[in-house]
Amino acid sequence: MPLDSNAYAWMSAREIAAGVRARKFSAEDVAQAALARARALDPKLQAFVTVLDALALEQARAVDAAVAAGKDPGPLAGVPVAIKDNLCIRNTRTTCSSKILATYEPPYTATAVEKIVAAGGLTIGKTNLDEFAMGSSTENSAFAKTRNPWDATRVPGGSSGGSAVAVAAGIAPLALGSDTGGSIRQPAALCGVTGFKPTYGRVSRYGLVAFASSLDQIGPFARDARDAALLTAVISGQDPRDATSASLPVPEGLLDLPARADLKGVRLGIPKEYFIPGTDPEVAAAVQEAIGVLKGLGAETVEVSLPHSEYGIGVYYLVATAEASSNLARYDGVHYGHRTEKEVGMVEMYARSRAEGFGDEVKRRIMLGTYALSSGYYDAYYLKAQKVRALVKQDFEKAFERCDAIVSPTTPTPAFKIGEKTDDPLAMYLSDIFTISANLAAVPGLAIPCGFSAAGLPIGLQVMGKHFDEAGVLGIAAAYQAKTDHHARRPALG
Amino acid sequence: MSSMAAPVDTRTWQPVIGLEVHAQLKTDTKLFCGCETSFGAPANTKVCPVCLGLPGSLPVMNGKAFRFALKAALALNCTIAKFTKWDRKNYYYPDLPKNYQISQYDLPFATKGWLDITLPDGQARRIGITRVHLEEDAGKLLHDESGAGGESGVDLNRAGTPLIEIVSEPDLRTPAEARAYMEALAKVLLYLDVCDCNMQEGSLRCDANVSIRPTADAPFKTRREIKNMNSFRFVEAAVETEIGEQKEIYANGGTVLQQTRLFNGQTGEIRTMRNKEEASDYRYFPEPDLPPVTLTEADLDGVRGEITELPEERLKRYMEVLKLSEKDAGVLVEFKEMGDYFEQLLAEGIAAKTAANWLISDCQGVLKEKYLTIATCGIAPKAMADLLKLVEAGTVNRASAKSTVFPAMLDAKGEKSAEAIVKEQGLAQVSDSGEIEKKIDEVLAKSEKLVKDYLSGKDAVVNALFGACMKAFQGKANPAVIRPLLEQKLKKLREG
Fold first, then answer.
1. Interface pTM (ipTM) of the complex?
2. Which residues lie below 8 Å from residue B237, measured CB to CB, with a gap of 6+?
3. Helix residue spans in B52-174 (DSSP H)
């Protein structure tokens, strides 16, 4: 029987796992189809840095063997999962889309990826990103510019652009991304998929190549909230290898999130600072319409205020760059990664290896962060940023006294053109204006499709929740998706 | 020093010395990962993604290392912070795999302590401890020492080993005080069993900050930091040399610049490594990968309970409770392993005085000849106690125990009991009075002149006769039995 690479393209992860567990089809068939689809679409989309044929097939055969032996391979049985290329997989190239790690193969696997494999998931490939997750368009990759499946002349968002595209294009029903200031939610919004950043500490960061340690969080991409909940459940939980992972138990309901029929008794906060004139009118209209749908489901709305959000970007670009300047110091050409071929002394070797290995945006941020931490500037920049960060957190605590979740646009505009903002870093930074605060406050934030522009580009709604209330946030999204079909629209892929 | 100020007499100027000591904690595993701590293992065999600083790896604090550090700080009378955090110290060096060191900056876990020291002349001084903090060690660079200019290597086995940095107040005033402080500090750490204190191997390292000033109440002048003193003797020598150089600079009207300097143990010279302007900006900031550590009073009580007897306390107990002489108590305290062995002999029921005499007077010479120490000699305290019990019971005399039995036990590497050796070599003392009397009679019969002298009133010849008897028994008789028997017999003769 000839393999149809589209047979499983739009199946949900839940359907695939159920089919594999019930032996309706094999994990190997699913893997072959996903790999074939990646081969067919990726020359155009450039979502993957590395497609892991051999590894995914080996994992699929192990799942099939378990099923044949009467064992349960787990809740992700045979489900292809695309992995952002800043998550380590043992003996597999992990590049962070940087020249400096272009050939680097880690000797260990990230906890979140280990959990996916243990649950029967198939790691079909490593996806493209902005170098070291620094960017909002995936244009900062040293290897390729990933295309938006809805319009190939536009960016997919970033930094987890490759993962968003893999899911949006039906190559994999699930993907892992990382979100430091919106790097899951912003590309999810721009690609019309569901993207979720759990509470800081919910998912172990062990094996996630650090950008900004106090903000980084791993999270899922999916085509609906229930699949996102499933992957969240699989990867969550305390990890003895990550001292910042939370000891709280993972809510049981996430594995098979019930689709709520209504949202009666749910109070939604509408932050006035997030509905501002600068926002694209089509985005504003789609978000207002979504709020109307949520009200129709029985939710109450209250206006809340997050007054320090306006400083969010400033705070973020001090805290994140300061941490990054230190986290990225290890790429020095001494122990692994790119080393200059010039025969030079030690200090010159450091300088040249880094100058050759890093791209412009990474260098810009390392310099910013180094400056912010320098003697004489620390108090004015880094320390002050930390103080304002505490105020941002307080804003959320106060707002959550009056509501259960906060809804807003995910991004101020739909997907922009490739090259449109590359010469204007500040304009690029502003595309994260609505997502950054959730990282600063460590709260969970979710992006779901809530409409399309006249040009056919997806628009995202953001739902932010209380610390560790992943179930609440995902539940609101699932109820919304049961009532609407924006998440079910598919891009025409030629 | 181009300044042409008038020459100054600096001979009476007073040195001001503060020491920064790094002590490697004796934990089984590293500070932030599960790798074994080791000395001398093949390069890069005790490493993992965390201590290699590989991308994506994260540190997790070793609770045992923290307890060790707390023990040390409590023993140094420090105030322990109820909230302490980790910071990153950023600098580039090939032995530092992350190019930052996880350390503690503005909130060290311990501050404001002290250490009492005794100077060689018996004078006591209390030296302030500014702070104690915990940090990870770096790896080691291996340079091509052939001179052929080969590539340098990096060994990261040591990277991530827990270190405590103990910073003293500038309270030390002489090179001898600096050395006494180092020795006292090492003794405390050894007693706590938290550090090997081997300066040659680098498990204990010392940097000295030295300045001088005209009088004891003058403000501090600029200090220079001396590194690389890898023995107690070198600490004293380096500080001495540095003081001399500073006196000369000021005497010639010059100024001392803030510098970091390196001591060379082979030549005794100090050379300047860098000036203050070249000092790095470490860009310290809180380590985001590690949560702060909070402690309760109950946690501290738990650690206090683990602190064993410290040197000063042991000395006092040996003198006041066990009634040992100051000298003997001093020796047992100075050499902790001997003191510990002594404790074990006491536990086996040996009297304090007997055990102390045996260890200090009898064992030392024998061990020294064989290049052994009491801790490495291979004889269990129980076996040693058995030997001392044989002496006590009169089965073997102390002289043979020392000259024959103990060396034989050492040769057998602890595999043979004292009793077996005594039996094997026929060393058991004759205690049967019938046999002894017969032998004494024989000696008296052969010693006509001495007996005549005795009878004529010369009591002193008893010693000579006693010696003759002992010789006749070839050391195998119990002197405690012979002496009274001999005296009894002589008395009888005199009484006729």
1. 0.96
2. B175, B229, B263, B268
3. 63-75
Residue B431: the pLDDT is 63
List of chain B residues whose C-beta atoms are within 8 Å of the C-beta of residue A104: 55
Cross-chain CB nearest to B288 (options A214, A330, A373) = A214
pLDDT in tens, A73-128: 999 999 999 999 999 999 999 999 999 999 999 999 999 999 999 999 999 999 99
pLDDT at A2: 46
How does the average pLDDT of chain A come out, rounded?
96
Of B55, B283, B289, the CB nearest to A243: B289
Out of A210, A212, A325, name the one closest to residue B56 (CB).
A210
Question: Is A1 a residue whose pLDDT tops 50?
Answer: no
For residue B1, what pLDDT is reported?
Answer: 45
CB contact under 8 A, B54 and A101: no
User: With contacts defined as CB-CB under 8 Å, which chain B residues touch A325?
Assistant: 90, 283
Q: Residue B231 corresponds to which amino acid?
A: S
Task: Dump pLDDT digits (tens) for A424-434.
Answer: 888 888 888 99
For residue A494, pLDDT over 80 is answered with no
Pairs across A and B, CB distance < 8 A: 98
φ and ψ at A217, to 5 degrees? -150, 135
Q: Is pLDDT above 90 for A168?
A: yes
List active site positions of A: 84, 159, 183
Candidates A132, A238, A332, A387, partner chain B, best to mutate (most B CBs within 10 A): A332
Smallest Cα distance from B148 to chain A, Å: 16
Q: DSSP labels for A66-95?
A: HHHTT----TTTT-EEEEETTB-BTTB---
**What residues of chain A lie within 8 A of the CB of B90, using their CB?**
325-326, 329, 373
The predicted structure's pLDDT at residue A326? 98
A260 pLDDT tier (thresholds 50, 70, 90): confident
The CATH architecture of the domain made up of B433-495 is Orthogonal Bundle (1.10)
Query: B59 is written with which tokens?
Result: 């540190």
CA distance B174 to B489: 66
Instruction: Provide the percentage of residues in chain A whose pLDDT is more than 90.
Output: 91
Interchain pair A373, B90: CB under 8 A:
yes
Q: Give A326's contacts in chain B (Cβ within 8 Å).
A: 88, 90, 100, 283, 285
Contact assignment for B55 to A110 by CB distance below 8 Å: no
The pLDDT score that the predictor gives to residue A261 is 85
Amino acid B4: pLDDT: 54
The pLDDT score that the predictor gives to residue B424 is 79
Return the amino acid letter for A99: K
- Torsions phi, psi for A208 (to 5 deg): -90, 120
Cβ contacts (< 8 Å) between B291 and chain A: which residues?
243-244
Q: B92 vs A350: CB contact, 8 Å cut-off? A: yes
Q: Give the integer Cα–Cα distance in Å for A162 and A463.
A: 23
Give residue limits of the domains in chain B: 14-298, 311-424, 433-495
> Where is average pLDDT lowest: A54-58, A279-283, B37-41, B351-355?
B37-41
Strands A80-84 and A122-127: parallel
Interchain proximity A244–B289, CB inside 8 Å: yes
Residue pair B445/B438 in contact by the 8 Å Cβ criterion: no
Q: Exposed, middle or buried by CB within 10 Å (0-12, 13-18, 19+), for A301?
A: middle
pLDDT beneath 50: ranges in chain B: 1-2
Burial per residue of A216-230, b for 16 or more beta-carbon CB atoms within 10 angstroms, e otherwise: bbbbbbbbbbbbbbb
Partner-chain contact B55 A326, CB within 8 Å:
no
Domains of chain A: 1-494 (3.90.1300.10)
Q: Do A330 and B55 touch (CB under 8 A)?
A: yes
Q: How far apart are CA A312 and CA A315, in angstroms?
A: 5
